[in-house]
């Protein structure tokens, strides 16, 4: 058995506190900011309005963009698909639509090198506006298309190809209750030909909207958007919904920061948690902020404001103890755990 000297004990304590402080500072001090400059930029459009909503990298190093155009195409607005090279130079473009308003909201490259597009159409389908799914080849030529919806305004916000070669789509389905119209989150699963395999809705008595869907590592799906029916009363909250492979809800969580909170996109992390980015707006400031948070199934909330508060407390405690012990050492005073112990009582 070896009894450490008072000097050695204090050195070990201060070394530990210094390490704790260093780690805390590394966690909180931002990475060195590198000023980014524009390498290139391109604009696409005509004499009317155009908007782009989604862009993804393609396997050839270029990009695929989807949105709508009022300058080109057949109707008031058409889905506009644009393919560029790695420098943003347009290689080709395609429009899809009829005489009314049609727009693309999301695009993904498929396993065959083509593209899958989703959005909404007022030209085709059964209702005022229907979800529209379009499959193209690698040159943007339409291979097939499908519409899904009822008699109201139904729209899609996101599409992804699933592990079985089919597609998962999320958006909004409008319904009527006592002559009042509301939106529910709508989840649609199709096969590789766009034929619906199943669909699920999620919502309450007020409006809900989904903005992103992703297949998870367990084969199920994670959806993010917002809800007015659940969470904080009379304001919208971020709504995260986890389903199994058949779209049955396994759990859901709401997150509230301001007066109006919206989830825009979600990703699954390597450790199984979920990263969400969205928007938060407060009445008292009247402007919006980006909200970035990490959540877990078990804890419900991890990261964001809570983690910064925790780290700040650790830093404050470490600084306080370091200053306190440093002052004790300068005055030559012993710590309370060392009084009455002779440092030469035991030899090393």
Brief summary of the model shown:
This protein is mainly β.
Plain-language structure description:
With 348 residues, this protein is mainly beta. It has a four-stranded antiparallel β-sheet, with no helix packed on it. It is globular and about 55 Å long. The relative contact order is 0.09.
| Biggest β-sheet strands, sense, barrel | 4 strands, antiparallel
Q: Secondary-structure element sequence?
A: HEEEEEEEEEEEEEEEEEEEH
Subunit organisation of the chains: single chain
* C-alpha end-to-end distance: 9 Å
Q: Output mean pLDDT.
A: 83
Q: Percentage of helical residues?
A: 10-25%
Major sheet strand order: 1-2-3-4
| Radius of gyration using CA atoms only | 28 Å
Regions with little confidence, pLDDT below 50 for 5+ residues: 1-8, 299-308, 329-348
Number of helices: 2
Strand content: 35-45%
Quick one: how many beta strands? 19
* Derived structural class: mainly beta
Shape from CA axes? globular
Question: Topology, pairings included?
Answer:
Blueprint: H1 6-28, E1 50-57, E2 63-69, E3 78-84, E4 90-96, E5 102-109, E6 115-121, E7 130-136, E8 142-148, E9 155-161, E10 167-177, E11 180-190, E12 196-202, E13 208-215, E14 221-227, E15 237-243, E16 249-255, E17 260-268, E18 274-281, E19 288-295, H2 304-330
Antiparallel strand pairs: 1-2, 2-3, 3-4, 5-6, 6-7, 7-8, 9-10, 10-11, 11-12, 13-14, 14-15, 15-16, 17-18, 18-19
Helix pairs in contact: 1-2
């Amino acid at each position: 058995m070896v009894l450490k000297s008072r000097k050695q004990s204090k050195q070990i304590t201060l070394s530990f506190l210094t390490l704790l402080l260093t780690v805390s500072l590394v966690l909180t001090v931002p990475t060195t900011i590198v000023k980014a400059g524009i390498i290139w930029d391109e604009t696409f459009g005509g004499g009317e309005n155009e908007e782009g909503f989604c862009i993804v990298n393609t396997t050839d190093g270029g990009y695929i963009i989807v949105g709508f155009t009022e300058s080109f195409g057949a109707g008031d607005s058409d889905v506009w698909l644009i393919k560029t090279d790695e420098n943003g130079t347009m290689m080709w473009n395609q429009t899809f639509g009829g005489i009314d308003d049609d727009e693309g909201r999301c695009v993904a490259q498929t396993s065959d090198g083509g593209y899958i597009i989703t959005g909404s159409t007022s030209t085709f389908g059964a209702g005022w506006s229907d979800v529209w799914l379009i499959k193209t080849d690698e040159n943007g030529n339409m291979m097939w298309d499908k519409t899904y919806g009822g008699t109201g305004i139904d729209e899609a916000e996101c599409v992804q190809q699933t592990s079985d070669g089919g597609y998962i789509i999320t958006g909004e389905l409008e319904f009527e209750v006592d002559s009042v119209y509301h939106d529910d989150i709508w989840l649609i699963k199709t096969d590789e030909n766009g034929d619906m395999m199943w669909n699920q809705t999620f919502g309450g008595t007020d409006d809900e909207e989904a903005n992103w869907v992703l297949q998870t590592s367990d084969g199920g799906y994670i959806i993010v958007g917002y809800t007015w029916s659940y969470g904080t009363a009379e304001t919208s909250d971020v709504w995260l919904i986890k389903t199994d492979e058949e779209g049955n809800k396994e759990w859901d969580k709401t997150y509230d920061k301001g007066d109006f909170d919206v989830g825009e996109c979600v990703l699954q992390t390597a450790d199984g948690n979920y990263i969400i980015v969205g928007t938060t707006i407060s009445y008292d400031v009247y402007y919006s902020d980006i909200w970035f948070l990490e959540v877990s199934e078990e804890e419900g909330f991890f990261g964001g404001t809570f983690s910064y508060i925790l780290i700040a407390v650790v830093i404050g405690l470490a600084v306080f103890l370091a200053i306190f012990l440093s002052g004790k050492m300068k005055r030559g005073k012993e710590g309370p755990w060392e009084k009455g112990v002779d440092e030469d009582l035991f030899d090393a």
